[in-house]
Fold this protein.
Amino acid sequence: MPPPERPYQPRRHSPPSPALPPPIPSRTPAPSPKLRRRRIQAIVAVSLAVMCFVVFSIAFVAIKLIGAIQKDHIAESSATGRSASPGYAKEGDWQTIGNIRVRVGSAKVEKVSVTEFRESHTSRDTLLRVTIDIENLSQNKKADYRSWQWANAFLPTTAECKDDIGNHYRSVKFGVMAKVDGAIEGDSIYPGKRISDTLIFEHPVAAAKYVTLDLSAGAVGLTGEFKLRIEIDPHDYPKE
């Protein structure tokens, strides 16, 4: 039996899609010259900040490396059989670390002669003037000395002065262009040679019997401290 015929259905046509509106042109204005300058300045500022960070990071690493090198120096010095005395050396006695030994050559409470801009004058206050002798005992190695008087953050060659009753005395400086007679900023110490430097501190109180100096061995590229002792006689104080 043949299948039934389907009724005729006309084909439906979908309506045409509406036309898209034309694109709206951008109304964002071009940056002005002033805005461009500000953007460039911001980029330069960020670049400088990054460069400063890198420089300070390198400096920090360099300081760490210098400390490690100094430790190697002291290890080498220990192999020579020389070491620092655990106590304080009296005035005129040597104290040795590695191939370097130091002593107090002289110490006096007095007004200090200072030269500045080729003119000499005397300090207003009475101060403690200490002459330090530094000798290189090595037979073939030169030592580089940086004065304890000119310590700073990058050159931590500290010099601490204190007395037997707990007072601490500051190192005295007279300005960048001023020079104390006998003082040096630094020098090379050749094998078997000796140099002298002058350190200036506040004068001790009259009740003090002695003062001690703790001098960083970093001043000669070593680690540790030279420990020196200076007897104080109040009768040696100048009359005011």
Observations:
- Confidence is low (pLDDT under 50) at residues 73-86.
- Residues 163 and 208 are 6 Å apart (CA to CA).
- The domain at 83-236 is CATH 2.60.40.1240 (Immunoglobulin-like).
